[in-house]
Amino acid sequence: MRSRHDDSNSPEVPTRSGSPPSPSAHARASDREELLELLFANVAEAIALVEPNGRIVEVNPAACTMLGRGKSDIVGKHAWEFVTSASRDEILEWFGRVEPSGPASVECSYRRTSGELGTMAVRLSRLGCPRRDWLIASCRDVTEEKRLQAPLPDASERETAAEELQRLNAELLQQASHLREVNQTLLDSEQRLRLAIETGRIGLWVWNSTDLGNVGDWSQRMKEIFGLPLDAEVTHDMFVKCVHPDDRARVDSSVMQALAGANGGEYRAEYRTIHPQYGSEQWVTARGQAFFNADGQAIRFIGTVMDITERKRAEEASARLNSELERRIRERTADLERINQAFRVEIEERRKSEASLTRAERLTQTGSATWIMTTGELIWSDETYRLFELHPDTKITPELVASRVHPEDLPLYLQAFRGNGEDLHFGHRLVMPDGYIKYVEVYATAVRDDAGQIIEWAGALRDVTSAKRSAEALRASEHLARGQFAALTRTLDVLAQESNPERLLEHVLRMIAGRLNGQSVSVYERNGPSSEMDLVATFEDDRLHAPSKDLSSAKKVTLFTENHPVWSEALRTGVDIVVGEIDCDPPRIRLGSRENSPWYPWHGDMPHDPNMPVIYKRLAAMGVVATLTVPTLIGGKLAGFIGIRSRHKNLFQTSEMELARALAHQAMLAIQLMRLSRQGREAAIAAERNRMARDLHDTLAQGFTGVIVQLEATEDAWSRGLLPEAGKHLARARELARGSLQEARRSAHALRSQALAEKNFREAMADLIKKMTSGSSVIGAFTQEGSPWPLSNEWEENLLRIGQEVLTNTLRHARARHFNAHVAFEPHRLRFELRDDGVGFDPAAQHEGLGLIGIKERVEVMGGHLTIRSAEGSGMAIVASLPAPYPYDGFTP
Q1: Which of 182, 540, 562, 816 is the most exposed place for a label (fewest CB within 10 A)?
Q2: Are 85 and 108 within 8 A, CB to CB?
Q3: Taken in order 636, 640, 642, 643, is the CA torsion positive or negative?
C-alpha cells in the first residue's frame, strides 16, 4: 500500500526490477511503511489484505466494524465465507483478473454477524511486493445507496431519499476531511521521526532474515557506529565479529531468539563493539523487531542502534562519584549511627527503668501519685489508676479521691494532709463502685519552696488487701490447724493407750463433741446408693450408746433427698456440709460449705410428720439451736455422715466447718479400725482352726497309720512263728505311738516338730521314709539335686508334713512297691517331687479326709504351685513348685 500524498521528498520504495536502493532509501522506506501501517489502522474505509487463494491475511478496524466481527474471527478465513452473492470459483476468478497495472471493481452481497444482508462495493488492487503476491480489497458499504436508488412510489419517498443522499454526502465529505487530516498527521510524524533519527545519530538496519547469509541493509550512521566502510555489504557474520568477544555469544543468542519468535520477535540488547581498524571499544544499545509470515517464519528484521559510549562513560564516572559519595555517606552515617546509638542506649535505659518501675509497681501493687497544692492537680501512675479502678483518661480531682475513701476512714485521710508537713504513713480503706473494699497503705512526703511552704505532696499508694485477707485467712487456718493438731494428738493418745479397739469410736466422738461444743454426735453409714442411712452410734451424756429413744425409734434413717435441693446435692457431691437452724419456725437447712447459699425448710415439700414437732421441742429443751451434718468418705466416695447438734451457732463459721470435716475423717478412721479389728479376730480364729485340723491330721492320723502298719507286720510275724521279728515290730509301733502323741501335743501348742528340732529337713525326711517303710513291702528312697539354700522353719515344717501325708497315702491305699521323694534346689525355685508306682487314683474325683486339702493349703501358704498327675493303674506323681525368696547364684546343677 502507498499513500496518495507521496511527494518528491518522500523515500523511494524499491521495485522488483529496480537497482538496489541506498541504505538511506531503505531507512526512509521502513519509516514510510510504519507510517502507512498507522494510516491503515485509522482509515475509515474497510480494507482487507488477501492472498490470491482467497485467504484473508489482515483487516483494519473499519472492516471488523462493517462485518460486525472481531479481527480473530476474520483473519485466516476465506473471502467466500462472508460473501453470499458469489461462489468460491467466482471470487477466485475476480482475483485472477486483477492486474498490477490497474484495479478492478466488483459489487457483492455479504452477511453480518446479526444475519442481516448488506451490499458492498469492492475495489481490488494487486500489491506489487518483491516476495509476496497480495491483493488489497477496499470495501465500502453501499446498502443504503442501493436502497435509495430503488424506484420510489411517490414524491414523499423521493424526497426522503434525497435527504438521505445529502446526509450520506455530508458524511463522505467529513470522512474525506478526516482522511486528509490523518494523512497530514502522518506526514508531520514522518518528518519529526526523520529529524529525531538524524539528531539522535541513530543507526538503522533492515535484514532479510530468511537466510543468515543475506546481506543486511545498514544505514550510513549504523556503519559509522560499527567502524565499517560506508560501501561495505554487512552480513550476519560480519556483524557478530564486530561485537566484543565477551558479549558475542549473548548478543547472537538474543538475535536468534527474536527470529525464533521469543517475546513476540522483540529484540533488546546493550553490548560493546570493537573497532575493526583501531580496536577501540564502544557501547551501543540496540532495539529491533522481527516480522513473520503466516507460517510463523521470520521474513524481516528491522531495528535501530545508538552509540551510548559517552553515556556509559558518564555512568562509570557517576558510579565512581557515587561510590565516593556513598563512602563519605557511610562514614557520616556511621558517625550519626554512633551518636544515635548512644541516644538509643540512653532512651532504652530510661525505657527499661520506666518499665522496671511499672513492673515493680504492678508486682508490688504500689502506685505513685503527686498532688500539686497550688493548682490542685493530681498526677497518677497507671498502677494508681488500676488500684482505684479508674480509666487512665479520667480527670482526677481531690473530691473524686475522697469519694472513694471509706466513710469511716475519711476523717483520718483528710486530717493527714492538713498537718505540718511531716512524712506520712497511714492506712485506710477504699470502697469500689461494686461495694468491694480494698485496704491501702499511704506513704507521702511534702515538697516545699524556698519560703518553706508546701507546694506539693509526692508519695506512693500500696494495695494491701491480699495481705489483710491472707492474715485473716492465716488466723483462721491457725485456728483450724490448732484444732486439728489437738484432735489428732488426742486421737493418737487414745490409740496408744486404748487396748480395746471397740472403744476408739467413743473416744473420737467425745473429742468431736468437746471441740465443737456439741450436745450430741451421731454417726450414720450409707446403705447402698439410696438415701437410706444406718445409724451406727450416738454419743450423748458422755457415753456411746444406741440411738436415743428420745430422738428415734429405729436404726434406719432416711434423708429427704428425692426432691429436696440441699439433701440431694449433698448426696450427689459427697463433699458439701449441711448446716441447720432449729430455733426458727420452721427449722431450715442450707449448704454451709457454699458461701451465701439459700436456706430451705428442713423437710422441703415432704408430708408433715407428727413426730417431728416433738423431736424439735425435745432438742430445744436440751438447748440445741444448730446442727452440722458432715460427709465421711472412703476411697473418695460418700460413706456416710456425722451429725453434730450444738448449743451455739459458731458451727456456721468456715474454720469450724473445716475442723468438723477433719474430725469426721478421724471418726470414719475409728469405725474402719473397729471393723478391721473384728475382721482380724475372725480371720485369726479361722486360721488357727484350720491349722489345728491340719496338724492333728498330719500327726495323729498319719501316726496311727504307721502304728497299724507295724501291728499288721507283728501279726504276720506271729502267724509264721517269728517271735523276734514280731517283737521288733511291736517296739516300732510303740515308738511311733509315743512320737505321734508327742507331735499332737506340740501341734496343740503350735510348737516346731520334734524331728525338725533335732535335724534339718533333708535328714528328717530321709529318717521319716526309713521309719514308715520299715517292715512294709514298699521300698522308699530320698534324693537331692543342686546346692541347698536355707529354708525357713515354716517351709521345713510344711514340706515334711506334705511328704508324710503322701507317704501315708501310698502305704495305705496305693499297694505300691516303690516310693521316691526328690527335692531340687534351683536359683529361682525349689521343686519337691513325690512319686510311687501304685494303683493310682483320679485327682478329679471326690476324696474323703483332709489329706489333699491340707497339702494344697500348705503349698498356697508358701506361695507355690501344686501339680498332681495320676491315673488308675499308672502310679502317682505330686510336684510342689515353690519360688525362692531371692535368687541364689551359687546354684550348680
Answers
A1: 562
A2: yes
A3: positive
pLDDT, tens digit (0-9, with 9 covering 90-100), for 453-485:
888 888 888 888 888 877 776 776 666 666 666
Yes or no: say if 51 and 75 are a contact pair by the CB < 8 Å rule: no
Q: How many CB atoms lie within 10 A of CB 585?
A: 8
SS3 681: helix
Confidence of residue 832 (pLDDT cuts 50, 70, 90): very high
Residue type (1 letter), 645: R
The alpha carbons of the chain give a radius of gyration, in whole angstroms, of 63
pLDDT tens column, 852-887: 888 888 898 888 999 999 888 889 999 999 998 765
Contact, 627 vs 644, CB < 8 A?
yes
Print burial letters for 553-583: b (CB count within 10 Å at least 16), e (below 16).
eeeebebbbeebebbbebbeeeebbbbbbbe
What is the CA angle 159-164-169, rounded to 5? 125
User: Rounded CA gap, 194 and 13, in Å?
Assistant: 16
In sequence order, what are the residues at sequence separation of 6 or more whose Cβ sits closer than 8 angstroms to the Cβ of residue 165? 145, 148
CB 662 within 8 A of CB 631: no
Residue 330 neighbours by CB under 8 Å, 6+ apart: none
- Which range has the worst mean pLDDT, 120-134, 274-288, 435-449? 120-134
**Distance between CA 879 and CA 865 in Å, rounded?**
8
Q: Helix, strand or coil for residue 496? A: helix
Residue 820, pLDDT > 90, answer yes
**Which amino acid is present at 552?**
S
Q: Which of 22-28's residues contact partners 24+ apart within 8 Å by CB, and which partners?
A: 23/204, 23/217, 23/218, 23/219, 23/220, 23/222, 23/223, 24/219, 24/220, 26/204, 26/206, 26/217, 26/219, 27/197, 27/204, 27/206, 27/219, 28/194
Cβ atoms 454, 448 nearer than 8 A: yes
Which element (helix H / strand E) includes 144? helix 143-149
Q: Can you tell me which residue has the cell 480371720?
A: 683
Check whether 9 has a pLDDT greater than 50. no
Pairing of strands 818-825, 829-836: antiparallel
Computed over every residue of the chain, the mean pLDDT equals: 78
Q: How many CA atoms lie within 13 A of 759 on its CB side?
A: 11
Distance CA 77, CA 90 (A): 17
Q: DSSP string covering 59-76, please?
A: E-HHHHHHHT--GGGTTT
CB 671 within 8 A of CB 536: yes
Q: SS3 string of 154-195? A: CHHHHHHHHHHHHHHHHHHHHHHHHHHHHHHHHHHHHHHHHH
pLDDT digits (tens, 9 = 90+) for 288-310: 998 888 888 888 888 999 888 88
Each residue's pLDDT tens digit, 554-584 = 455 555 556 788 888 888 888 888 888 888 8
Q: Are 444 and 458 in contact (CB under 8 A)?
A: yes
Q: Which helix (H) or strand (E) holds 460?
A: strand 454-463
Terminal C-alpha separation, the chain:
121
Task: Please name the amino acid found at residue 374.
Answer: T
- DSSP E strands in 26-132: the ranges are 46-50, 56-59, 104-111, 117-128
Pick the range with the lowest mean pLDDT from 150-164, 228-242, 827-841: 150-164
Closest CA to 83 of 65, 56, 43: 56
CB distance 194 to 27 below 8 Å: no
User: Is the Cβ–Cβ distance between 799 and 821 less than 8 Å?
Assistant: no
DSSP letter string over 356-379?
HHHHHHHHHTEEEEEEETTT--EE
For residues 646 and 666, is the Cβ–Cβ distance under 8 A?
Answer: no
Residue with cell 535484514: 207
In this structure, what C-alpha cell is assigned to residue 228? Answer: 565499517
Instruction: Examine the pLDDT at 823 and tell me if it is beyond 90.
Output: yes
